[in-house]
């Protein structure tokens, strides 16, 4: 046992004793009981949970390079209480992230026009995929009348399954992407935000604005490690024969994955390649 | 056209596909497709009709035409007609009774398996309850060999799944060591890459291969990129022991996945001549109810039947592992914990009935109504039913794919509660490493820093 572990154990013992001494078990009036608040402040701290590891420093080091739940140790074959609760808390947060909306302030700040899919409620959006894959009639009409046509690239921001992801990344990602494309003399239509939308809605909008390449920046379904991740889906000239494998995907765009600014530059390069080869997805991978 | 009068009400079904769809237990994907039963009694009427339909009727009416669908063609071309003709006059109800009977042995089941189309197997499962599915699944133990032998009685294997959000090699390596230190990794060490490029995939293949060589681990490596990427990596000399691809139950969905018979044939051939493993089983497939409906490629067929057809397609290439991931998509296909548990039990039975070495990933995503408790129930039930393997994910949380799956802890627990051992060769390695003794993890287990 190393010194640190011993010190920790002693400290824990002392704390326990202190609690026992201070606890007014006897003759406590109802009044004081109510006024006593036991405040528990939950904080997630990465700790080595392995008992007597062969190399504690090694575990600490690798814990810092992956968000995966490693080096957590076990009791019997099960997780320790702390890690079990952490997992359940992160799951609860992820569930909540699905049902929040992207804030109007952010959309105003980015000057993104807001279009709508055919999904009228979150429930419809989750259970009826088609409703999130097409623009509603008002939005189609608006797009046809107001968006610039025949540009090389159309950018779409979609809430997808994580409004948190859009809020955390788009402010950095979108300008980086636009700047990257502009510096390559690639023409871009007006970026738009589409509420309650899925990836395939890009085919719908591409047909209206007649672009060569359409890119969707879309909130990924939230994970436990992060609820803030978005993906980019790109496709060259989608049509009725388009299949899923025709799309190129870059996932895990967030601070702990591919950082948004870096992703913007990378996506601009990727679009240049797609335009050059006039293909995306598996077709592009085979051409390269 | 079929009709059934039940409790003074007459129900009509316009085809076998319609009967199959309406006889399914409730699932949100079938509802979204507009093919599910509209009431509980209509579902029962469909089950009654299905129990009377003969295997011959099903054979003569494939749910998707032979001429237009490659999956149907493989299922029919691979069928043993001699065995089929022996049982062609059975009704689906009789087939269910035969499967569950004490008089029917494991080898009897393997034999009729060769004469059953996927639709027949799906039909039988629709007449089975949870315990029916477990009892039947326990009887069927398909085995396969790559570098290790999977599926032997008394043994349970795991895929160590050490994913990292941006494929950081050190991060992958750390999660891999963690998994191995819990005894997970005898099925395969399989990494889902974030970056699907040939260079990046090859890098991970080399890294995992080198680690396996260095520590002399009896297992196989795999990087779960698109099969065409893996083929290119293999042609450029990357070491692959097991090649992966996701499959679906209609040609239209497989087109969406970018796969076909021709491509998988090439993968099969290349692995036989250039793969690093012994074989003969060198492919790893993933499947799951709902992929066709989420790709709008279901052609009006229910999710469970399409899943069965995926197995009929998969068995053509004699895979080492078929992993079922039915909860992976979301609430639009599988709504809640109850539907996941049902799908997992159905899929395990249907896969085994096709003679496939099945594993189950009792997964859930964060936008569906399921949680860890549901997942653990599905894990225990399918382990009881004799699944060959599960995934192993650090702390049950896949930080790249953003979903939950069985943890290294769950893996160790499933083995311990059912008295199951790791795969033979791998158990010897674990004992030599001081990680396991007498089938139980030692004090040394769960410490990734033992790999220096």
From TrEMBL, chain A:
* Record-listed E.C. numbers: 4.3.1.7
**What GO CC terms are in its UniProt record?**
ethanolamine ammonia-lyase complex; ethanolamine degradation polyhedral organelle
The residues that hold adenosylcob(III)alamin are: 199, 220
Checking Pfam families in the record gives: EutC
- Tell me what reaction this enzyme catalyses: ethanolamine = acetaldehyde + NH4(+)
Record-level GO BP terms: amino acid metabolic process; ethanolamine catabolic process
Q: Which GO terms describe its molecular function?
A: cobalamin binding; ethanolamine ammonia-lyase activity
Q: Which UniProt keywords apply?
A: Bacterial microcompartment, Cobalamin, Cobalt, Lyase
The pathway this protein participates in, as annotated, is: Amine and polyamine degradation; ethanolamine degradation
Q: Which cofactor does it need?
A: adenosylcob(III)alamin
Asked if Lyase is a keyword of the record, the answer is yes
| Cofactor: how and how many bound | Binds between the large and small subunits.
Asked if Lyase is a keyword of the record, the answer is: yes
Its top-level enzyme class, in one word, is lyase
Quote the subcellular location field of this record.
Answer: Bacterial microcompartment
Q: How does it assemble?
A: The basic unit is a heterodimer which dimerizes to form tetramers. The heterotetramers trimerize; 6 large subunits form a core ring with 6 small subunits projecting outwards.
Question: So what family is this one in?
Answer: Belongs to the EutC family.
The protein's role, per its UniProt record: Catalyzes the deamination of various vicinal amino-alcohols to oxo compounds. Allows this organism to utilize ethanolamine as the sole source of nitrogen and carbon in the presence of external vitamin B12.
Q: What is this protein called?
A: Ethanolamine ammonia-lyase small subunit
State the organism named in the record.
Cytobacillus firmus
The major lineage groups are: Bacteria, Bacillati, Bacillota, Bacilli, Bacillales
Question: Gene encoding this chain?
Answer: eutC
UniProtKB/TrEMBL annotation, chain B:
- Where's it found, cell-wise? Bacterial microcompartment
Q: Which residues bind substrate?
A: 159-161, 192, 286
Q: Is rRNA-binding set as a keyword in this record?
A: no
**What are the protein's UniProt keywords?**
Bacterial microcompartment, Cobalamin, Cobalt, Lyase
A Pfam family of the record is EutB
Q: Which GO terms describe its cellular component?
A: cytosol; ethanolamine ammonia-lyase complex; ethanolamine degradation polyhedral organelle
> Quick one: which pathway?
Amine and polyamine degradation; ethanolamine degradation
Q: Which reaction does it catalyse?
A: ethanolamine = acetaldehyde + NH4(+)
Subunit structure, as described in the record: The basic unit is a heterodimer which dimerizes to form tetramers. The heterotetramers trimerize; 6 large subunits form a core ring with 6 small subunits projecting outwards.
Q: What is this protein called?
A: Ethanolamine ammonia-lyase large subunit
Recorded source organism is Cytobacillus firmus
Native organism taxonomy: Bacteria, Bacillati, Bacillota, Bacilli, Bacillales
């Amino acid at each position: 046992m190393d010194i640190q572990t011993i010190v920790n154990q002693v400290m824990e013992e002392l704390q326990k004793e202190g609690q026992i001494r201070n606890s007014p078990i006897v003759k406590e009036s109802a009044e004081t009981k109510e006024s006593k608040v036991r405040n528990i402040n939950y904080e997630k701290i990465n700790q080595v949970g392995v008992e007597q590891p062969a190399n504690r420093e090694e575990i600490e080091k690798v814990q810092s390079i992956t968000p995966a739940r490693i080096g957590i140790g076990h009791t019997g074959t099960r997780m320790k209480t702390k890690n079990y609760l952490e997992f359940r808390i992160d799951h609860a947060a992820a569930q909540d992230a699905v049902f929040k909306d992207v804030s109007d302030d952010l959309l105003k700040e980015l000057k993104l026009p807001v279009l709508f899919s055919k999904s009228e409620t979150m429930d419809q959006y989750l259970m009826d995929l088609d409703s999130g894959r097409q623009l509603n009639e008002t939005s189609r009409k608006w797009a046809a009348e107001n968006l610039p046509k025949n540009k090389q690239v159309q950018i779409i921001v979609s809430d997808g399954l994580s409004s948190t992801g859009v809020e955390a990344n788009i402010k950095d990602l979108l300008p980086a992407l636009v700047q990257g494309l502009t510096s390559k003399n690639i023409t871009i239509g007006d970026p738009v935000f589409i509420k309650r939308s899925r990836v395939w809605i890009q085919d719908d909008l591409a047909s209206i604005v007649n672009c060569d390449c359409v890119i969707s920046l879309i909130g990924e379904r939230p994970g436990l490690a992060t609820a803030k991740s978005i993906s980019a889906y790109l496709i060259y000239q989608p049509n009725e024969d388009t299949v899923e494998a025709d799309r190129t995907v870059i996932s895990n765009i967030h601070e702990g994955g591919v950082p948004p600014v870096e992703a913007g530059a990378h996506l601009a390069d990727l679009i240049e390649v797609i335009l050059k080869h006039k293909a995306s997805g598996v077709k592009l991978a085979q051409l390269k | 056209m079929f009709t059934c009068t039940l409790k003074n009400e007459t129900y009509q079904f316009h085809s076998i596909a319609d009967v199959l769809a309406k006889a399914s237990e409730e699932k949100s994907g079938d509802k979204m497709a507009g093919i599910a039963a509209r009431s509980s009694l209509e579902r029962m009427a469909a089950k009654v009709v299905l129990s009377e339909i003969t295997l011959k009727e099903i054979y003569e009416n494939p749910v998707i035409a032979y001429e237009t669908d490659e999956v149907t063609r493989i299922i029919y071309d691979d069928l043993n007609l001699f065995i089929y003709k022996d049982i062609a006059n059975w009704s689906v109800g009789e087939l269910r009774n035969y499967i569950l009977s004490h008089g029917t042995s494991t080898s009897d089941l393997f034999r009729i398996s060769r004469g059953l189309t996927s639709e027949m197997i799906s039909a039988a499962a629709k007449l089975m309850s949870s315990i029916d599915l477990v009892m039947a699944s326990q009887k069927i133990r398909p085995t396969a060999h790559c570098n290790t032998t999977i599926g032997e009685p008394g043994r349970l294997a795991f895929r160590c799944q050490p994913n990292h959000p941006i494929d950081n090699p050190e991060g992958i390596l750390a999660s891999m060591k963690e998994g191995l230190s819990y005894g997970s990794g005898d099925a395969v060490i399989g990494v889902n890459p974030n970056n699907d490029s040939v260079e990046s995939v090859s890098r991970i293949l080399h890294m995992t291969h080198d680690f396996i060589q260095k520590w002399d681990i009896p297992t196989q490596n795999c990087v779960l990129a698109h099969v065409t990427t893996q083929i290119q990596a293999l042609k450029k000399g990357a070491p692959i022991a097991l090649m992966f691809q996701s499959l679906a139950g209609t040609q239209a969905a497989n087109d969406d996945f970018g796969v076909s018979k021709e491509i998988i044939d090439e993968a099969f051939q290349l692995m036989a001549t250039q793969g690093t493993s012994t074989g003969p089983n060198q492919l790893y497939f993933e499947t799951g109810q709902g992929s066709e409906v989420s790709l709008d490629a279901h052609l009006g067929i229910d999710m469970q039947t399409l899943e069965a057809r995926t197995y009929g397609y998969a068995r053509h290439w004699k895979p080492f592992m078929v992993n079922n991931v039915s909860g992976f998509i979301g609430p639009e296909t599988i709504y809640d914990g109850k539907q996941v548990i049902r799908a997992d039990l159905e899929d395990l039975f249907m896969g085994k009935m096709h003679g496939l070495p099945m594993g189950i990933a009792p997964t859930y995503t964060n936008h569906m109504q399921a949680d860890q408790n549901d997942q653990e129930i599905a894990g225990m039930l399918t382990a009881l039913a004799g699944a060959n393997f599960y995934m192993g994910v650090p702390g049950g949380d896949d930080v790249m794919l953003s979903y939950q799956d069985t943890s290294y802890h769950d893996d160790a627990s499933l083995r311990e509660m059912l008295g199951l051992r790791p795969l033979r060769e791998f158990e010897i390695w674990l004992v030599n490493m001081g990680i396991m003794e007498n089938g139980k993890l030692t004090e040394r287990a769960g410490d990734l820093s033992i790999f220096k």
